[in-house]
Amino acid sequence: xxxxxxxxxxxxxxxxxxxxxxxxxxxxxxxxxxxxxxxxxxxxxxxxxxxxxxxxxxxxxxxxxxxxxxxxxxxxxxxxxxxxxxxxxxxxxxxxxxxxxxxxxxxxxxxxxxxxxxxxxxxxxxxxxxxxxxxxxxxxxxxxxxxxxxxxxxxxxxxxxxxxxxxxxxxxxxxxxxxxxxxxxxxxxxxxxxxxxxxxxxxxxxxxxxxxxxxxxxxxxxxxxxxxxxxxxxxxxxxxxxxxxxxxxxxxxxxxxxxxxxxxxxxxxxxxxxxxxxxxxxxxxxxx
Length: 288
Known about the structure:
Blueprint (H helix, E strand, L loop, with lengths): L2 H12 L16 H8 L18 E10 L2 E10 L1 H18 L21 H16 L2 E5 L6 H14 L4 E5 H10 L6 H10 L2 E7 L6 H16 L4 E5 L4 H7 L5 H9 L4 E5 L6 H11 L1
Parallel strand pairs: 3-6, 3-7, 4-5, 5-6
Antiparallel strand pairs: 1-2
Helix pairs in contact: 3-5, 4-5, 7-8, 8-10, 9-10
């Protein structure tokens, strides 16, 4: 292509961004514009941020004043796909520091498979999304393998995505961490972190030892968050409210349940009669 023809082609491209662009505003060297034009739609075949030749940026024209003359150059603009990928990587890393186990590190609302599992699983997904959007608390109850923890982790990631603090902890681990701090100055710090985070997942309520101390500590944490209208999600193998009251502890179970039954608490969803979400997903991966 002759130089004049090349300049005309680049000018046509420039005018998609700057309709009043003039050919005399082009610099002598056009190599940066040729590169920018060739990469303009690179997101259509994105190799991922790790293999991106422009490190997550798209080169676009920019009008600048050079002394008394106005000229065009190119400048990098962050690629939306690259920004999303970087954001997801940060969220993934942050979720790990929030206590999310490796097994659940990839869990999101998008990859929660509701096909072939029945209406209660689909309703659980809808409830988790709605409670997250409205900053409401949620109880997910039902037998193991129904995807309760998957949804709780997906909620946690949404809170992290919006810049809020979140904690994921099995109930047994919460109580163990409090016990470890006995005789130190960190006991209050552990409980305060759980009480005051923007969002907390209390995973597997009912698996803890049923002692008066455990029941009181658990009630203290849940009651604080309830009283201060701080959202939490509780997962449990209980499949009805009476069973949950028993599993929450003989001395404080009724007090915990009274908070959960309050209409201002949020939502309670029982996943009884659901197919084994975990087992079917495992089988589908094997067959694939």
